[in-house]
TrEMBL record:
<comment type="similarity">
    <text>Belongs to the CWC16 family.</text>
</comment>
<feature type="region of interest" description="Disordered">
    <location>
        <begin position="237"/>
        <end position="278"/>
    </location>
</feature>
<protein>
    <recommendedName>
        <fullName>CWC16 protein</fullName>
    </recommendedName>
</protein>
<feature type="compositionally biased region" description="Low complexity">
    <location>
        <begin position="323"/>
        <end position="333"/>
    </location>
</feature>
<dbReference type="GO" id="GO:0005684">
    <property type="term" value="C:U2-type spliceosomal complex"/>
</dbReference>
<dbReference type="GO" id="GO:0000398">
    <property type="term" value="P:mRNA splicing, via spliceosome"/>
</dbReference>
<dbReference type="Pfam" id="PF04502">
    <property type="entry name" value="Saf4_Yju2"/>
</dbReference>
<feature type="region of interest" description="Disordered">
    <location>
        <begin position="300"/>
        <end position="363"/>
    </location>
</feature>
<dbReference type="InterPro" id="IPR007590">
    <property type="entry name" value="Saf4/Yju2"/>
</dbReference>
<dbReference type="GO" id="GO:0071014">
    <property type="term" value="C:post-mRNA release spliceosomal complex"/>
</dbReference>
Length: 363
């Protein structure tokens, strides 16, 4: 087994002063830097940035696809302002010819300078007067990709926004730090609240299960809401059997024996334009009309006057009292008579008489 740093022995008297590569006269990159001292080239792994045609291949050029890798000699050949320009020389394994590609910092691209040419896809072709560039995916291209300055502007906007919102971020951090200054107290408060809510949920679940067992329901019951409580409070249930019997007996006494059905008015409104609200109002009016007819019959029928129900409407007459000014005035009015109930009635006005039933033997 080969140990670490094998072949780079450093004597004890030179440790910390020099390295094994310097003593052996080797470069740290090894064989990759074998031309670095002569031509200044470094062997690197280069990947083809786009498809090219190899012009060294005979009789017909051969295409080299995008992404094919080569061992290329990387060498600095110049500068564009402060940006270095590098060239990459590689050997095509099919024909043995040399291909050279260099960088173009001015246009942010690669340029084939020797041994080949870039495959023409029509994108880099300059438009002639009257020509229109047609690209199938022109709508999907981000404007930032076309203009590099737009990316820089976006970064500047983000920086300005970060400066303006820095105060807000610090405020939120201070508030969070203040709220969680005592983690144990906050955790205790949250656990207590959760415990109470859990007990309430358990009680509601137990009530729901009991109701499902009682009603033999196989469905999931929802939680009770305030709207459900309001609707339940507005529901009125009828009385017991006794109240129902009294109501039936009262209606049987007040209803005529030979009741004629009411004639329903002809409606001019078509059925599809009628509303449920209108039908409900009409039914309420009919119920009030029947109740009014029953109360009137109970008032004028002599056979029902002594056996009227306590809930039957009764007409009350307001009594007027007259005070005699003197005895002479009392004696001078022979047409007035005393009523046994204490009220004085005028003889000129006929007193209401009760209806009498005459039975005849001739019948």
């Amino acid at each position: 087994m080969q140990g670490f740093n094998m072949g780079r022995y450093v004597p004890p008297d030179q440790e910390g002063v020099t390295t094994g590569n310097q003593i052996a006269g080797k470069h740290p990159l090894g064989a990759r830097a074998r031309h670095l001292h002569t031509t200044g080239a470094l062997i690197v792994r280069f990947e083809m940035p786009f498809a090219i045609w190899c012009t060294n291949c005979k009789p017909h050029p051969v295409i080299i696809g995008q992404g094919v890798r080569f061992n290329a000699e990387k060498k600095k050949i110049g500068n564009y302002y402060t940006t270095p320009i590098y060239s990459f020389r590689m050997k095509h394994t099919v024909c043995g010819g040399t291909i050279e590609i260099k960088t173009d910092p001015q246009h942010t691209a690669y340029v084939v300078t020797e041994g080949g040419r870039k495959r023409d896809t029509g994108e880099d072709k300059e438009l002639q007067p009257g020509e229109i560039a047609i690209k199938p995916f022109a709508r999907d291209i981000d404007p930032a990709e076309k203009d590099p300055f737009s990316k820089i502007e976006g970064k500047m906007e983000d920086k300005n926004r970060a400066k303006t919102e820095a105060a807000r971020i610090l405020e939120l951090q201070e508030r969070q730090k203040r709220d969680w200054e005592d983690p144990y107290a906050k955790s205790k408060q949250l656990r207590k609240k959760f415990r109470q809510e859990r007990k309430g949920l358990e009680n509601a679940q137990a009530k729901g299960d009991a109701l499902k067992d009682k009603m033999s329901l196989g469905i999931e019951l929802l939680d009770e809401t305030e709207e459900d409580r309001q609707k339940a409070s507005m529901v009125e249930f009828g009385g017991g059997a006794a109240s129902a019997a009294e109501q039936v007996s009262r209606m049987s006494r007040l209803r005529p024996m030979f009741e004629q059905p009411e004639e329903k008015p002809t409606r001019t409104t078509p059925p599809w334009l009628r509303t449920r609200k209108g039908d409900l109002i009409a039914s309420r009016k009919a119920a009030w009309r029947r109740e009014l007819i029953g109360n009137t019959r109970a008032r004028i029928d002599p056979f029902l006057q002594g056996a009227t129900h306590p809930s039957t409407w009764k007409h009350q007459v307001k009594k007027k009292k007259t005070v005699a000014s003197s005895k002479t005035a009392t004696s001078s009015t022979p047409s007035l008579r005393d009523d046994p109930s204490g009220t004085e009635l005028d003889s000129s006005t006929d007193a209401p008489k009760r209806s009498l039933v005459i039975y005849s033997d001739s019948d």
